[in-house]
Amino acid sequence: MPTPGPPRRSRREQLARIAAELFAQKGFHNVSVNDIAAAAGVSGPAIYRHFRSKQAILVHLLCEGLEETAELVERSLGDRAAPHGAPSQQRLAQVYAQLAAFVVRHPDFGVLWRREGRYLSTEERVSVADVSARGVIPLVRELHLLRPELPESDAELLTWAALSVFGSISDHRVRPPQAELERLLTATALDLLAADLPVPGEVESPIRTAASIAESPGLDTRRKQLLAVAARLFRERGYHAVTVEDIGAAAGIAGPSIYSHIGGKMELLQAAANRIGERLDEAVEQVRAADLPPRAALELSVGAYVDVVIGHRDLVAAYFREGHNLPDRDRTEVRRWQRAYTEFWAELVAAASPEQPSKETRIRVHAAFAVVNDLAQTGRFIARPRLAQELRTLMMRTLLAADPP
Predict the structure, then answer these.
(1) Dihedral (C-alpha) 313, 314, 318, 319: value to the nearest 10 degrees?
(2) Residue (of 210, 209, 239, 201) closest to 386 by Cα position
(3) Fewer CB atoms inside 10 Å of the end CB: C or N, the chain?
């Protein structure tokens, strides 16, 4: 008598977990239904007994993850479940510890949420946003109860910054024991919730992404224009949803004549990755040449990093969201550069805070990158007049552990 297979629901969840790992590693568009089936040891048509399409798997993964976190937040912060008289500080510490445990269990969720959500339909995006709001709004409200002096917009900024800390674990493989990782993520998130944002002062210039690319040396004028346009379209639609013809039309170049300036859209993605690497390397050399005390060197590096991310918003998005689409040789080179760049930051932080354990430092470095990159790409925050100063403050607060309250 044949051994019965796993229940339908458990098989469905197994396939979803396998798909999540593949989507995170290779990118949604670089994974086929047959790839998922092969990894699961089943036939391609077997997938369709559980999901109607690859797109349906992505929607399921995002909605299931957001639903679980929303229910977690509602159980922790909902009036009926709240411990009587429990202070907001205690309630927030508990709920963020539970969120940290969730992301440690589901490390691929962060990259799917941050990178692949662009490929949802309008209707799917609305559904996902509604579920997301169920988890975020109570967190903002609870922070406002704890810190009533904060404008609601500031409480929202700090909440999203704290959540970015959790998403950062999909960007690296630094893995201390599970309990220690959860503790570090929670402590870093709570540090951000306690941050004091800069007071109103001089209003900064608006973000000028295209202008900053146009000023880049080493590119002729038409190629600069095409790189700026391509980076914007990659950020808005995703690399695979953009054609060379789309880039040409947006740049005002009709038909095949665009190929007299570029070899294809992959060439533009490679140029975007190279341009960001060059800008960040320039900042590293400036810090080294300045020969400053450790804390001042760290602050200078933070300022330079924020300036690059804000000034090259579209290029940064192309680099961090689309790097998995680069050819193997380029991906290998990017990973090598990222390791060296992260090590430079770990040394900076270690010099400024030598008592901080090295594993904690590395986790905080990756979290700091995620906080700045995520907030600079979030539409509701781009128009904030002091965004650059706020990002510098939040990056420093992420990198250096605060004293226990």
Answers:
(1) -30
(2) 201
(3) N
Residue 374: exposure state from Cβ atoms within 10 A (0-12, 13-18, ≥19): buried
**Which residues, other chains included, contact 186 with Cβ-Cβ below 8 Å and sequence gap of 6+?**
93, 96, 97, 100
For the stretch 182-227, pLDDT in tens is: 999 999 999 999 999 997 654 443 333 333 434 444 456 888 899 9
pLDDT digits (tens, 9 = 90+) for 322-339: 888 999 999 999 999 999
CB-based contact 104:182 (threshold 8 Å): yes
Closest listed residue to residue 143, CA positions, set 155, 133, 131: 155
Environment class of residue 313 by beta-carbon count within 10 Å: exposed (0-12), middle (13-18) or buried (19+)?
buried
Q: Find tokens 């979030």 and name the residue.
A: 378
Residues 236-268 as b/e (b if ≥16 CB within 10 A, e otherwise) read eebbbebebeebbebbebeeeebeebbeebebb
Distance CA 228, CA 209 (A): 8
What DSSP element (H or E) covers 30? none
- Average pLDDT estimate for 246-273: 89
Query: Cα angle at 123 between 381 and 371, to 5 degrees?
Result: 25
Contact 373, 305 (CB under 8 A): no
Residue 124 contacts residue 28 (beta carbons within 8 Å): no
DSSP label of 205: P
DSSP assignment, residue 116?
A: I
Output the CA–CA distances (angstroms, integers) from residue 290 to 346, 348, 381, in the order listed: 18, 13, 32
The DSSP secondary structure of 319-347, one letter per residue, reads HHHHGGGS-HHHHHHHHHHHHHHHHHHHH
- What digits encode the pLDDT tens for the residues 1-13? 444 555 556 889 9
Cβ count within 10 A of residue 282: 12
How far is 167 from 46, CA to CA, in rounded Å?
A: 32
| Interacting residues of 397 by C-beta distance below 8 A, sequence separation 6+ | 191, 192, 195
Lowest mean pLDDT among 166-170, 215-219, 278-282, 355-359: 215-219
Instruction: Report the predicted TM-score, pTM, of the whole model to 2 decimal places.
Output: 0.88
pLDDT greater than 90 at residue 158 = yes
- Alpha helices (runs of H) in 48-200, residue ranges in sequence order: 54-77, 88-105, 109-111, 122-146, 152-167, 178-193
Number of Cβ atoms within 10 Å of the Cβ of 53 = 11
Nearest to 213 by CA among 135, 308, 298: 308
Arithmetic mean of pLDDT, 377-393? 93
